[in-house]
From TrEMBL:
The lineage of its organism: Eukaryota, Fungi, Dikarya, Ascomycota, Pezizomycotina. This is Major facilitator superfamily transporter. It comes from Daldinia eschscholtzii.
Amino acid sequence: MSDTWRKGFSAPRRRLGSLLRTSPKKLFVLTIAIFFTLCLLAGGSFRARRYYVEKAKQDERIPYHWEKYPRLSGFYHGVRTLVNYTDWVPEQQITEKTKPLIHEVPPMDPVVVNPYPDFSSSEYLQDHHPVQRCYVDENEKFPAPDIFAYPGIPAGMPAPFWGSYESIGVAPDRCWERFGRFGPYGYSYNPAEGGLGLSNNSAHAGAEKVQDMFTKVDYRKVDWSKAQKKCFEKNQKRFDPEAARGDGATEGKKVVKRSAYVLRTWTGYQYTDIQLLSLRAMINELSLKSGGEYDVHLLVHVKDNSIPIWASEEVYNQTIRENVPEEFWGITTLWSEQQMRTYYPGPFPEEENFENHSKSDIHGVYRSAHFALQWFAQQHQEYDFFWNWEMDLRYTGHYYEFHNGISEWAKEQPRKLLWERSSRFWIPGIHGSWSKFSQLVERETMESNEKPVWGPVTFPTSGRGMLPSPKENTPPTKFEEDNFQWGVGEDADLIVFDPLFDPAKTNWVFRRDVSGYNTSLEIPPRRVAIITVARLSRGLLNTMHEETFRMHHTMFPEMWPPTVALHHGYKAVYAPHPVYFDRQWPLDVMDKTFNYPPTPQDSPFGWGEHNMQGGSFYYNAGFSGALWRRWLGANENGEGGKKMEESRSDRMCLRGTLYHPIKSESVE
Ligand SMILES: *[C@@H]1O[C@H](CO)[C@@H](O)[C@H](O)[C@H]1NC(C)=O
Ligand SMILES: *[C@@H]1O[C@H](CO)[C@@H](O)[C@H](O)[C@H]1NC(C)=O
Ligand SMILES: *[C@@H]1O[C@H](CO)[C@@H](O)[C@H](O)[C@H]1NC(C)=O
Ligand SMILES: *[C@@H]1O[C@H](CO)[C@@H](O)[C@H](O)[C@H]1NC(C)=O
Ligand SMILES: *[C@@H]1O[C@H](CO)[C@@H](O)[C@H](O)[C@H]1NC(C)=O
């Protein structure tokens, strides 16, 4: 789902005043900007709107405070500058800038990355069923391929500003470049061999070493649905509670939980070659290599409401064939807003809606993207977890390492003060370790007069009232009596990738888009995480479903899952994945800006959102796309590309990073 429409609040407030006291030329520019805005709004092209408005304003605007900080350049150091992790000094800590030592060829060799448990070890087999190997093709000629990283980091690479690798279980000591990351999925070999042939224009020092490490898979006839299905069937015992209870021989084995990895796409979506590589990587790394722990699904929004996808299998299949690359046909599920109107008839009356800020249909994907996921989860109660994944996300590292690492990290978090920790940005450079950060949050929460969240949150209701909350979400003790024990070892019900903030403390524009409650009473307490990327448990999704169909409750998509979790006492976390910025922010300024905005308007989730533009992960981040494209080898604003890479230190090598949004990508 696109979220660029939230635009319009990112300008410094001074700008408005200066435009009012303005010259005819400026007025002309402003008129043009408004004209484009209206045209594009009418055309529904929110993305384009954003682009033109920014263009028109370019010369007019007052620079943001962060634009004066020096740019970091170590991101672009290539594989010929690799150093051992223990020798690496982050760019932020280098006091005297010197050129890194550039070798003739990469000074180390790529290695296979295997982040899975050692499936064949006796420790694993002691309490798990054996894992059967999975293949890409039906004839089992091509085993699910490995991918490769360099066991080092380019000299002078910046450190992430938020989050950390170590805490989320991602190896911090290696980096990824295009041949090792995507070569095995067809990036670097020819269409005649079943690859995509995208590497002809790439700098490639040392790449032949990677090329020699894998067998080229012919992807031309791959059917991922068959591959995933077969993999699951071979490994079914691992996930079957009956088999775990056992018959003597298999007794006492752990039941492995399963996830659906749900990609939110739509009819008319253009699958670039790079997107194909990313999708193959997800299926291979999450599903096939893990012995079926995940199933990747494409959940496709059919935008034309007049197509009766529910009435005819032929129409359904035809719609898939016209909108999805053949290799993914079998993992595709279609839905439409028309179908959601029937599934969740409501009613959702206007008088029960606090504010319809976007002035759009309640059944539209814009206001209720979660309806489709809730429906999907009802059809697939076999999964324990559902990852809601957007199409404009990219990740440079190993998918399983990232997702499994985050899930395990979340599982270990105690529930006490979890909402409070999750509402902040952890900046290790100033806060220290996670446990120091946790102590800080504890101290500041106790010093404030706010009551920490502890179990389901109650609030005045009338009319239909509230659904009861699941018994297991009732705290076993009083808050004061818990020694950070409750919740440890319990899988999280909601994992998000930006802080879980209270919108009442911000001027986030959709904070009052709350439906189905008595609007004469106070608005219910809420939480929000920007970007609808999350892992949701089956239990949480079932409650969301029931809240919607039975109670006619719903809220803006980024607010709904966190708020249902808050109301019903589910375990919710913001996972501190590493986030980079393009400039060297002073850390105290960064902490103040993001964690202590002086007014609600200054919140990074309100008018202060411009502070995110230089980041690698936010809905309006601009650096994310630039860095991703440079990593692929593209020329970006006159920088990068084959010639420049070859004349410097060759292609970039980044540690695993989650990027959002990626609005375009190319290898040229
Ligand atoms: C990394 O460390 C190993 C072992 O100490 C050493 O042999 C190697 O030369 C180092 N590599 C680089 C690029 O510094
Ligand atoms: C890349 O180069 C190879 C070998 O020269 C050639 O066969 C192939 O057609 C090229 N691929 C593309 C996409 O241009
Ligand atoms: C639609 O596609 C499915 C899956 O490929 C297939 O099993 C089914 O027979 C198809 N139905 C029609 C009417 O084409
Ligand atoms: C929201 O506003 C739109 C446009 O005015 C209107 O069509 C729609 O019915 C409203 N929906 C709700 C639930 O208020
Ligand atoms: C909403 O709350 C007001 C104020 O308590 C009350 O008078 C009214 O009856 C309630 N409406 C419904 C539909 O319950």
